[in-house]
């Protein structure tokens, strides 16, 4: 078997040293990674990288979606744990808004970040983290908590769509 493999290398004239050098040679057709990236593309990539670092850190700390303390199915939704997650999500949304300030092509990210910040304000105004006892207040806390729980995923999705100019 080894002889067959060696004979294939000898017949085609390939060697390990040529494989190493092959990557140094310019190719006739540019690969996608060698094509110049537009200023908008570079800006979108910068936004995504800055936001992804923040989101990943906060997501590891607090969870996201159904694993978030703000999930409407979580017993922590009416506690300081959800409030801390809400603050972190709002801060990530604020980072997104500051990163995209004045730039076009981030409509989805802008909308998601503003929706998250509004949800956090509502959550705080209602006193949801203090364990409200009134049924109408607890019910009013459900929508903003759901937005907060989904916030990291929505910001990530918005940043990804920003790469496409959406």
Task: Spell out the blueprint of helices and strands.
Layout: H1 2-12, H2 16-22, H3 39-62, H4 80-100, H5 107-126, H6 135-149, H7 151-163
Helix pairs in contact: 3-4, 3-7, 4-5, 4-7, 5-6, 5-7
Describe this structure in words.
This protein is an all-alpha fold and 166 residues long. It is 67% helix and 0% strand. The chain contains seven helices and no strands. The protein has helices at 2-12, 16-22, 39-62, 80-100, 107-126, 135-149, 151-163. It is elongated, with a radius of gyration of 24 Å. The N and C termini lie far apart (54 Å). Mean pLDDT is 82; it is low at 1-32.
What would the keywords be for this entry?
166 residues, 7 helices, mainly alpha
* Global mean pLDDT: 82
Radius of gyration: 24 Å
Number of helices in the DSSP assignment: 7
E-strand count: 0
Q: Which consecutive residue ranges, at least 5 long each, have pLDDT under 50?
A: 1-32
Strand percent estimate:
under 5%
Order of helices and strands: HHHHHHH
State the separation between the terminal residues, measured CA to CA: 54 Å
Percentage of residues assigned to helices = 55-70%
- Structural classification: mainly alpha
Largest sheet: none
Gross morphology is elongated
